[in-house]
């Protein structure tokens, strides 16, 4: 059996990425494998059925309470009649007026209580009151608020400038957006699904209005809706991203801990067709990690999708360089899983849910953005369900690695990993570990050379310190062996030893003449 077949848990057919209802659009794990269009239809159907069932249950409970009240009231009337038969005689009007008025008052109070209970049962504020109080207690830092305010103001100015080119449709779009934002400000108590439904309905209604009333082409509508999404979601980002009414934050922490626990997963276990020893491939891997991490810093769903698309293109480029041929879809998903494991993107689940709930649905159903986003959802789901069989490991090995009792790097010397030479272990199979071993060897050599250099420097310092004394001793020894003797010499005239001096004429004497 081939290695690819053994690790079939990583392989995902392209048909699995499409909507389960067969509409041809890309599905999403958050929508139970449906596209945004089919999910909205299914969600509205289930929601309407739930509302009808709740009302039927409320009416049933109300009828049962009324029947129980009528039964108890009948027994009370019988007791009162017995009491009245023994009591003094009263006029008929006065005898029946007191019990009847009490009955009407009690019945009115009971109905009011039931109506209030039913209203509270269907009111979203009762479900999110505690969440709202918690959210109001949170106060962002001044620097974050100033930065968010600056971004919001800049986006608003850009949006107004863009709408000026559309003239009459631009004025209508701006009016509709402002009205929608005002309405959304009064719906902060709604859950995430209800907020998503409001935003998606606004997208759909505005697009339909542009195409029907203003006869705008579909391409122009897509461009306008991109700008509308940027403007709307920048203004709503703080209130709809990872809201308190959801468990997105809990899922983020679970995913982050899961990825940290899988830090030992190597590139060979996932059958990734990338050679990180090639400089261009290593550079693409670093850029892909940077792009997927940068996704959390964006505020607009379309910008977050852009980060996912850039990350995916870097992965395709790395695979192409490694294989010297275009990358296939089967190679892409394992590589994307590897990048996510190395990057451990912040708030991954919150970003996925944010894009799912508030992105323009046409971007998620078709195009390269929708394809890459669907694969990212599959990668996140695969990481959550990663097991020993997916990595071609035994359950015992998988548990040891997950608990930290063992590491593939050290256990690989026994021949656990394929494609590694005898005795080389995981370092030969994993280029990153191999490079790490080489770096450790170089550091060990540098350490030895550093110690030798320090010893030589210390010896030189000692020699320099003793050199003046040594020179002084040698000079003294030479002076003692060869003392300095200074001989005196008699000074004489230059011609003192000349024997012919007597034959020389006398010296001339000056003569004085009298004038």
Features:
elongated; mainly alpha; 19 helices; 69% helix; disordered N terminus
Structure description:
The chain is mainly α. It has helices at 3-6, 36-86, 92-122, 124-137, 142-164, 168-185, 192-213, 218-240, 248-261, 279-294, 301-323, 329-343, 348-358, 361-365, 367-384, 395-403, 408-411, 426-429, 431-481. The longest helix is centred in the N-terminal third of the chain and has 51 residues, at 36-86. The radius of gyration is 46 Å and the shape is elongated. It starts with a helix and ends in a 34-residue tail after the last helix. The model is unreliable at 1-9, 87-100, 117-139 and 412-429 (pLDDT under 50).
Please outline the major beta sheet. Answer: none
Could you give the order of the helices and strands? HHHHHHHHHHHHHHHHHHH
Low-confidence stretches: 1-9, 87-100, 117-139, 412-429
Secondary structure category: mainly alpha
How far is the first residue's CA from the last residue's CA?
148 Å
Average of pLDDT: 78
Please, how many helices?
19
Coarse shape: elongated
Using the CA coordinates, give the radius of gyration. 46 Å
């Amino acid at each position: 059996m081939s290695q690819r077949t053994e690790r079939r848990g990583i392989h995902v057919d392209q048909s699995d990425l499409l909507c389960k209802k067969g509409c041809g659009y890309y599905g999403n794990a958050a929508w139970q494998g449906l596209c945004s269009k089919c999910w909205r239809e299914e969600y509205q159907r289930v929601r309407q059925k739930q509302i009808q069932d709740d009302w039927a249950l409320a009416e049933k409970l109300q009828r049962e309470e009324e029947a129980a009240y009528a039964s108890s009231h009948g027994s009370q009337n019988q007791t009162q009649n017995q009491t009245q038969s023994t009591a003094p005689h009263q006029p008929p009007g006065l005898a029946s007026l007191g019990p009847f008025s009490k009955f009407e008052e009690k019945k009115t109070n009971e109905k009011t209580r039931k109506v209030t209970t039913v209203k509270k049962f269907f009111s979203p504020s009762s479900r999110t009151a505690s969440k709202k109080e918690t959210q109001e207690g949170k106060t962002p830092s001044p620097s974050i608020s100033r930065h968010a305010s600056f971004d919001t103001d800049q986006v608003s100015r850009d949006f107004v400038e863009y709408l000026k080119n559309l003239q009459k449709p631009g004025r209508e779009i701006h009016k509709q957006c402002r009205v929608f934002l005002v309405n959304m400000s009064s719906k902060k108590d709604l859950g995430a699904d209800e907020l998503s439904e409001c935003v998606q309905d606004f997208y759909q209604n505005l697009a339909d209005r542009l195409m029907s009333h203003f006869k705008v082409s579909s391409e122009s509508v897509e461009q306008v809706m991109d700008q509308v999404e940027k403007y709307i979601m920048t203004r709503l980002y703080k209130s709809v991203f990872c809201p308190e009414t959801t468990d997105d934050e809990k899922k983020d922490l679970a995913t982050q801990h899961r990825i940290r626990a899988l830090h030992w997963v190597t590139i060979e276990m996932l059958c990734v067709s990338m050679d990180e020893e090639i400089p261009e491939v290593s550079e693409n891997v670093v850029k892909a990690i940077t792009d997927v991490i940068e996704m959390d810093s964006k505020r607009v769903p379309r910008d977050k999708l852009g980060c996912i698309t850039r990350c995916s293109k870097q992965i395709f480029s790395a695979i192409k360089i490694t294989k010297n041929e275009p990358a296939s879809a089967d190679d892409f998903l394992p590589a994307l899983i590897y990048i996510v494991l190395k990057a451990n993107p912040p708030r991954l689940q919150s970003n996925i849910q944010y894009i799912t709930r508030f992105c323009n649905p046409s971007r998620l159903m078709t195009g390269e953005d929708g394809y890459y986003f669907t694969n990212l959802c599959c990668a996140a789901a695969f990481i959550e369900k990663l097991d020993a069989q997916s990595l071609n490991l035994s359950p015992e090995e998988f548990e040891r690695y997950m608990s930290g009792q063992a590491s593939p790097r050290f256990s690989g010397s026994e021949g656990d990993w394929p494609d590694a030479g005898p005795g080389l272990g995981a370092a030969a199979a994993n280029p990153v570990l191999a490079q790490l071993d080489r770096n450790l060897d170089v550091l060990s050599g540098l350490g030895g050379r550093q110690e030798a250099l320090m010893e030589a420097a210390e010896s030189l310092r000692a020699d320099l310190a003793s050199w003046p004394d040594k020179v002084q001793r040698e000079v003294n020894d030479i002076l003692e062996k060869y003392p300095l003797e200074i001989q005196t010499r008699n000074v004489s005239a230059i011609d003192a030893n000349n024997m012919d001096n007597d034959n020389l004429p006398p010296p001339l004497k000056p003569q004085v003449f009298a004038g």
